[in-house]
Amino acid sequence: MKENTLELSFEMYEELKETLIKTLRTELSEARSQPAATIDTNAIKHLQIRILQLEQTQTRVSEAQQERGHRIEQRLQAISERQEQICEDLGTQIAEIDEKVAEMEIPEELPPRMVQHRFALSLDATRNFWLFMSMFIVIAVQSVGLYLDWRPDRGRYDNDLKYRYVLMKGEASPKRLSELEELFEVERDQRCIDSMRKDVEKYERLVRRRAALDEQARLKAQEAEQLKRDAAKLKNK
To answer: Where are the annotated coiled coils located (predicted)?
Structure first.
């Protein structure tokens, strides 16, 4: 890009210089064609000096252009030689790689890759040991607290089930209470307890249904009695 700009500048300079030379020569010819009385010798000498300077400048510019063109050709030739050398080196390296690949023995089936993961817990450091022990103690205390908090609830549930079972049976004899204590406390049998709970819940549903039916029957009896009285009143009128 820079070389193109320089060449364009030189071309413009050449055109300007030629234009100036033509102009000066025209002025010089006109000055010479004038009568001797009106000729200014100093102006003619000045024009001749300027023409000579421009011609010398043109000569130097031409020599500089030739020298620059010669340097550019040398540089292009060096670049071309470098490219050829690089291509030859690349060709040699590619050929060597192809030979090495051809000499390699590639098995048809690759052996399976074994991946082993190892996890280790080290308690050598005192800080890690005490941190681990603190976490263990906190977890143990929380577990005991949750268990102690859960036991009273289970006791209340058991007492509620015992009370409902006694209501279902309709009696609370010492023998029955002893059997309940043995079932819930001494030799706890969760299967029997679950069966007892199902029986109690079924009995309570039946009792509630019977109570609802009795209430409906009572209301219907009251309604029938009221209708009977109303009919008697109408009959006695």
So the answer is: 210-237
**Selection from 57, 66, 61, 72 nearest residue 4 by Cα:** 72
pLDDT in tens, 7-36: 545 566 566 667 766 676 676 666 556 554
**Is 161 exposed, middle or buried (CB count within 10 Å of its CB: 0-12, 13-18, 19+)?**
middle
Q: pTM of the entire structure?
A: 0.35
Burial class (CB in 10 A: 0-12, 13-18, 19+), 51: middle
Task: For the beta carbon of residue 6, count every other beta carbon within 10 angstroms.
Answer: 13
Residues 135 and 138: their CA atoms lie apart, in Å, by 5
Beta-carbon contacts of 48 under 8 Å, excluding residues fewer than 6 positions away, are 28
Report the alpha-carbon distance of residue 91 to residue 89 in Å, rounded: 5
Instruction: Name the DSSP class of 184.
Output: I
Average pLDDT, the chain: 75
* Nearest-angstrom CA–CA distance, 206 and 201: 9
